[in-house]
Specification:
Largest interface: A-B, 62 and 87 residues
Radius of gyration of chain A: 19 Å
Strand order of the largest sheet of chain A: 1-6-7-8
Order of helices and strands of chain A: EEHHEHEHEHEEEHHH
Structural class of chain A: alpha/beta
Oligomer: heterodimer
Strand content of chain B: 15-25%
Structural class of chain B: alpha/beta
Number of strands of chain A: 8
Largest sheet of chain A: 4 strands, antiparallel
Strand order of the largest sheet of chain B: 5-4-3-6-7
C-alpha cells in the first residue's frame, strides 16, 4: 500500500446524504475479478445526468470528494473504495461514514475524514464559489486546510501510523502467529469445523 | 459492572491486546461467496500465503447464480468467470464449496445456519454486509470487505476496535399480522440508516424471545440497514432446539458441554448499554418503505410522507429526491400503490418459515393479473423442504414462478431484475435506487404483505383480503 502523509488537491462537492455503495458502484460492476478498472462504474447511474457534479468540467481534476452525511451505507463491497481510487480520489470528507465502508477505505489507503456537518457545508460553499481552491488533507498533523481555515480531525493512532507507513495489515498480524496458535489450542472441542476430520 | 452478551463473546475471542492498537479477534467461521473473494485469493497468491484454516471456511455460490436452467452453463460470461474463479480458488486452497446444483448450495447466510455451522458464542464473518444475520444465534457476526476477507483467509483473525453497545427493547406482544420484518423496518425508520453506526445492537425483550430462529435471523440480517455492523439475540431453548441434530451441531457429550456454555451467553442484569431504544410491540403494524433507503418507511396504513414536513435539511432533500425516483406523490395512501413485481426471497426472508407464511396467504388465490411473482428459496434445501410440504404447488397454482435458490432479485446480479420504471414489493433488505435493476423501484415488505400484495396488485396486508 502507498504511504499517505499529506494530500493536496482540488475538491468536488457531492451534495447528497445517505450515498449507498450501490450508487457508488452498482452490482453489475462487481462481477469483475480484478482490483482495477472500476472508475467507469463510479456513480454510473447519476453520471447519465449531464448536470451531475462529476460531469461538470470545473471539477474534472478534483481528487478530494466532499460528501453529505452517511456516505457509503449498505453493501460491504470494497469495490466502492476501488472505484473512488481508480477514478482519482485520494480522500473523502463527510460528517459521517458507514462503518464497513470506513473500514474498507482505511485498509485500502483512501483517507476518509470526518468533519462537522457545518464545516462540510462551508467547504461546499467555498469550492462551489472557487473550484480551484486547494485543499490539503494532512494525516501527519490530523488536519484539513484550505484558504485560512485549519480543521482538526480525529483518527486513531494505529490507523494513522499504518497509513503513514503504508503497512500491510496481514504482515503485522502474522507477527502474532504464536499467539494465534496458542489461542487455537485452547478453543473448545465442540466448535464446528467445515471439513471432516 | 456487568457485561453485555457482545462484550462476553468479544472477550472470549481476543488473541492479542495492546494499548493503542485494535484487538486481534479470532474468527470461528468464515463464509465465502464469489463476488467479494476473487481479489482476496489473488492477494494470497501474490504474497505466497496459504489459507490458515480451510476447516473453518466454507464457500457457496449465490449472488450471480441463475434461478432457472441451472443445469446449463451460466449464460452471462462475466458471471460465469466469477463463479469459475471461486471454484478454482476453493480447489487450489482446499476449501469446501457448494456449487450450483449441489443440495447445500444457496445464499451464504441461509446455508451456514441450516448446516448448523452458525452456533452461539461464535465469531462469524463474510464479505457481505448481511453477515449480521448470524447474530440471531447469539454470536458476533459482521460483514467485511475484500481486504479483510484476505486477512481472515491468511490469519483466521481480524484487528478490530470494539463498537459501542445499543439495546433495542421490544417488550409486549406483537399484534396479529406483524412480523419480525415489520419490527426491523420500524426500528430503522425510527433511528435512521445511520442510527446504529458504531454500535452492535442487541435485540431484547419478550417479543424478541417469542420469535422463531428464522424470524430472529430476519431482524439481525437488517441490523446493517440501521448502520450497525452487527446485531445479536441471546441464545435460548429456541436456539438450542433449532440447532439440535443439524449436520455440524455438537453431538453427545460435546452437545452437553456446548449447551452449558451457550447458557452463559446473555447480558448480565447490570450490563451497561451505551444507548437504549424502546420499541413497544403493541405499537407496531405492518410496515413498508416508500423511499430509496430502508429508513424511509411508514406503516402500511399510512400515506406517502410530505418532504416539506421533514425538518432536517439533508433528510428533506433525500426525501424529495426519493419521491421523484419512486414516482410517488406526498399524501398518496401506501395501499393505493400498484406494483408490477413481487419478490419473495433473499437472505432476509427466503427461509422455510417465510415461504410457509406467504403460501398460507396465497392458498386458493391467484396472483393479480399483470403482476409477476417470483418465489426464490434461500437455499436448495429450503426449496426441497418447501416441495416436500407442497408449498410449491400453492405458489404455482397461484400463478407465481417457483425458482431455484440464490440472491436473485435482491440485487439483480443474475438475470432476475426489474426493468426501468418497474415497481416491486420485495421481501429483501434494500430499496436503493437501481438495486433490483436499473430504474427499478422497490418497496420493502414482509412475506405476508408480499403475498397479499401479489393477490391485490397494490400494497396490501392479509387483513385487506
Amino acid at each position: 500500500m502507498e504511504k499517505f502523509t499529506i494530500h493536496t488537491g482540488t475538491a468536488l462537492p457531492l451534495r447528497r446524504s445517505n450515498v449507498d455503495t450501490d450508487q457508488i458502484i452498482p452490482a453489475e460492476y462487481l462481477k469483475r475479478v480484478t482490483r482495477s478498472g472500476f472508475e467507469d462504474g463510479l456513480f454510473v447511474a447519476w453520471r447519465k445526468d449531464p448536470e451531475f457534479v462529476l460531469n461538470q468540467p470545473q471539477y474534472k481534476s478534483a481528487s478530494i470528494l466532499v460528501a453529505g452525511a452517511d456516505f457509503g451505507t449498505g453493501s460491504s463491497r470494497e469495490h466502492a473504495v476501488w472505484a473512488l481510487q481508480n477514478y482519482g480520489f485520494s480522500a473523502v470528507l463527510s460528517s459521517r461514514f458507514a462503518d464497513i465502508f470506513r473500514g474498507n477505505s482505511l485498509k485500502g489507503g483512501l483517507l476518509t475524514v470526518i468533519l462537522p456537518e457545518s464545516e462540510i457545508e462551508k467547504i461546499w460553499e467555498q469550492i462551489e464559489k472557487n473550484p480551484k481552491t486547494k485543499i490539503s488533507v494532512d494525516l501527519v498533523a490530523r488536519e484539513v486546510r484550505y484558504e485560512e481555515k485549519i480543521l482538526p480531525f480525529e483518527i486513531d493512532d494505529y490507523t494513522r501510523w499504518r497509513l503513514m507507513e503504508g503497512l500491510d495489515d496481514i504482515g503485522l498480524t502474522l507477527q502474532h502467529g504464536d499467539k494465534v496458535t496458542d489461542f487455537e489450542r485452547k478453543r473448545a472441542t465442540f466448535m464446528p469445523v467445515t471439513l471432516t476430520k | 459492572m456487568g457485561k453485555t452478551l457482545a462484550d462476553k463473546v468479544w472477550e472470549d475471542h481476543v488473541v492479542h491486546r495492546a494499548v493503542g492498537e485494535p484487538d486481534l479477534i479470532y474468527i470461528d467461521l468464515h463464509l465465502i461467496h464469489e463476488v467479494t473473494s476473487p481479489q482476496a485469493f489473488d492477494g494470497l497468491r501474490l504474497a505466497g500465503r496459504k489459507v490458515r484454516r480451510p476447516d473453518l471456511t466454507i464457500a457457496t455460490e449465490d449472488h450471480n447464480t441463475p434461478t432457472i436452467d441451472i443445469d446449463k452453463p451460466i449464460a452471462d460470461p462475466v458471471s460465469k468467470i466469477q463463479v469459475d474463479t471461486l471454484r478454482k480458488n476453493a480447489k487450489d486452497f482446499g476449501i469446501r464449496i457448494h456449487s450450483l446444483g449441489d443440495v447445500e448450495q444457496g445464499i451464504v447466510h441461509v446455508v451456514g445456519p441450516q448446516l448448523g455451522l452458525t452456533q452461539p458464542g461464535m465469531t462469524v464473518v463474510c464479505g457481505d454486509s448481511h453477515t449480521s444475520t448470524h447474530g440471531a444465534f447469539g454470536g458476533l457476526a459482521f460483514g467485511i470487505g475484500t481486504s479483510e476477507v484476505e486477512h481472515v483467509l491468511a490469519t483466521q483473525t481480524l484487528p478490530l476496535t470494539k463498537p459501542k453497545m445499543m439495546a433495542v427493547n421490544v417488550e409486549g406482544v406483537l399484534p396479529a399480522g406483524v412480523t419480525s420484518k415489520d419490527i426491523i423496518l420500524a426500528l430503522i425508520a425510527k433511528i435512521g440508516t445511520g442510527g446504529g453506526q458504531g454500535f452492535i445492537i442487541e435485540y431484547r425483550g419478550s417479543a424478541i424471545r417469542e420469535l422463531s430462529m428464522e424470524a430472529r435471523m430476519t431482524i439481525c440480517n437488517m441490523s446493517i440497514e440501521a448502520g450497525a455492523r452487527a446485531g445479536l439475540i441471546a441464545p435460548d431453548e429456541t436456539t438450542f432446539n433449532y440447532l439440535k441434530g443439524r449436520d455440524h451441531a455438537p453431538k453427545g457429550a460435546d452437545w452437553d458441554a456446548a449447551v452449558a456454555y451457550w447458557k452463559t451467553l446473555k447480558s448480565d442484569a447490570d450490563a451497561k448499554f451505551d444507548v437504549q431504544v424502546d420499541l413497544p410491540a403493541d405499537s407496531l403494524a405492518p410496515f413498508v418503505t416508500w423511499g430509496t433507503n430502508p429508513g424511509q418507511g411508514v406503516a402500511l396504513n399510512d400515506v406517502v410522507p410530505n418532504p416539506a414536513d421533514i425538518k432536517d435539511e439533508a433528510a428533506r432533500g433525500s426525501a424529495e429526491r426519493a419521491l421523484v425516483y419512486m414516482d410517488l406523490k406526498a399524501g398518496t395512501p401506501m395501499k393505493q400503490i400498484k406494483v408490477d413485481t413481487v419478490f419473495l426471497g433473499s437472505c432476509t426472508n427466503g427461509r422455510i418459515e417465510d415461504l410457509r407464511s406467504a403460501a398460507q396467504v396465497l392458498k386458493g388465490s391467484k396472483v393479480s393479473q399483470g403482476v409477476r411473482m417470483l418465489v426464490v428459496p434461500g437455499s436448495a434445501r429450503v426449496r426441497l423442504e418447501a416441495e416436500a410440504e407442497g408449498l410449491h404447488e400453492i405458489f404455482l397454482a397461484a400463478g407465481a414462478e417457483w425458482r431455484q435458490a440464490g440472491c436473485s432479485m435482491c440485487l439483480g446480479m443474475n438475470p432476475d431484475q426489474l426493468k426501468p420504471g418497474e415497481r416491486s414489493a420485495s421481501t429483501s433488505n434494500r430499496n436503493f435506487e437501481g438495486r433490483q435493476g436499473k430504474g427499478g423501484r422497490t418497496h420493502l415488505v414482509s412475506p405476508l404483505v408480499a403475498a397479499a400484495t401479489a393477490i391485490r396488485g397494490t400494497l396490501s396486508a392479509p387483513s385487506d383480503l
